[in-house]
Amino acid sequence: MAMTAQEIETYIRTALPDAQIRIDDLAGDGDHYACKVVSNAFRGLSRVRQHQLVYDALQGHMGGKLHALALQTSTPD
């Protein structure tokens, strides 16, 4: 069973309450998403660490229930 965009957003928002989140279903199959997350929590962190925070927020669903996630992270301007 695939994850919905709403489920992904809920997981991320729980971990990063200030986040601005945009999720696009790339293939229309609920299994391949692009996600852009903007949060102050990323300030001063490497891109790798920013992505790790998002993956941690997904609580182990990446690679299982969630097959593919093209991720972009940044801090607010």
UniProtKB/TrEMBL annotation:
**Gene3D superfamilies linked:** BolA-like (3.30.300.90)
InterPro entries per UniProt: BolA, BolA-like_sf, BolA/IbaG_stress_morph_reg
| Organism superkingdom | Bacteria
Classification via SUPFAM superfamilies: BolA-like (SSF82657)
Pfam families documented for this protein: BolA
The record's comment on protein family reads:
Belongs to the BolA/IbaG family.
Q: What is this protein called?
A: BolA family transcriptional regulator
Source species of the chain:
Novacetimonas pomaceti
Classification lineage? Bacteria, Pseudomonadati, Pseudomonadota, Alphaproteobacteria, Acetobacterales
